[in-house]
Design a protein that fits this description.
single chain, alpha/beta, six-stranded mixed β-sheet, 6 strands, about 20% strand
Amino acid sequence: MKKAGILNRHLAGALAELGHGDGVLVCDAGMPVPAGPRLVDLAFRAGVPSFAEVLDGLLAELVVEGATAAEEIRAANPAATALLEGRFPGLALVPHERLKDLSAGARLIVRTGEARPYANVLLRCGVFF
């Protein structure tokens, strides 16, 4: 058994399969999950695990070259806005409906237990060299 990093075997395996340009949607418990992308559902109960915990765990494992969130996040969820803008200075914002459309092209969806609105971000994988 791993003693550090991501212990969830489904998530660890999915991350190992990602390549440059692949999309990873990190979403709250209310985000509609499209058919197609691989889903790792970490939601245990409302708020557990939080969006911030899952995002920070993924960022410790991934190289990210870009991030996109719903523009509605600014008005509806200031805490998540601050979190995302702090992690991604070049954060792109699109209408929520567009984010849902883009999520269908993700390779992986990681569902958190977050219960606050618009706590969703689409990450674009980079390379480590």
